[in-house]
Write a structure and sequence with these properties.
With 199 residues, the chain is α+β, with helices and mostly antiparallel strands. The chain has helices at residues 25-65, 81-86, 146-149; strands at 76-78, 96-101, 104-105, 109-110, 121-124, 161-165, 172-173, 190-193. β6 and β7 form a beta hairpin.
Length: 199
């Protein structure tokens, strides 16, 4: 009868099971490097953003504190009666008139106050309409000469104040001050009330 020998069976336990490393050292280093780079870029971006905001705020403060053409001339007093009617500026569009600059007359008009670099003395025309006209102010409410009355181009009663000399000769106006204080002498240097010719 044959002998049967027992064959030992070896079982592997969990402790003896070989372990495999799924991550290599190179892959771990690569992931760490990427995280460091991303963190550095984020920190640098935040730093640049803060610097940009500070520089922009400083630039805007400088721009608002210094006018484009220099410091504004503080001498912008309301114009006097004579200054109001000597100026050719439109007080609704450009009410700031420069009276003098560098010792001489200027006469320029501006919608904003003049700077010290461009005007020495200026005034504001915006209040001229509120000024009372003095009683002794020259006007056209005077009788016309006979030479005017016999002329063919005589103003009618609805605009009786007639310019008699200057580039506006034979011009008619409703207001008695139109040809005197509101017009320069080259335009009209004498006038009268045409109603006097019909009296």
């Amino acid at each position: 009868m044959p002998k049967y020998e027992t064959i030992p069976i070896v079982l592997e336990t969990d402790e003896e099971a070989p372990t495999t490393n799924t991550r290599s050292d190179g892959g771990l280093r690569t992931k760490v490097s990427i995280r460091v780079i991303i963190g550095g870029v984020a920190a640098l971006s935040m730093l640049l953003a803060v610097i940009f905001m500070k520089s922009s705020a400083g630039a805007s403060a400088t721009a608002t504190s210094v006018p484009l053409l220099g410091s504004t001339n503080a001498n912008s007093a309301p114009c006097t009666f004579d200054e109001c009617y000597a100026s050719n500026c439109n007080h609704k569009v450009a009410p700031f008139t420069c009276l003098r600059h560098n010792g001489g007359p200027h006469g320029g008009c501006s919608p904003t106050p003049w700077t010290a670099f461009t005007c020495t003395t200026q005034c504001d025309l915006s209040g001229c309409d509120d000024l009372d006209i003095p009683d002794d102010t020259e006007s056209c409410d005077t009788p016309c000469d006979e030479s005017v009355c016999v002329g063919e181009r005589l103003c009618d009663h609805d605009a009786p104040f007639q310019c008699t000399s200057g580039s506006a000769a034979f011009g008619c106006s409703v207001g008695k001050f139109e040809w005197t204080i509101r017009t320069n002498e080259n335009t009209c240097n004498s006038c009268c009330n045409a109603k006097s010719c019909k009296e």
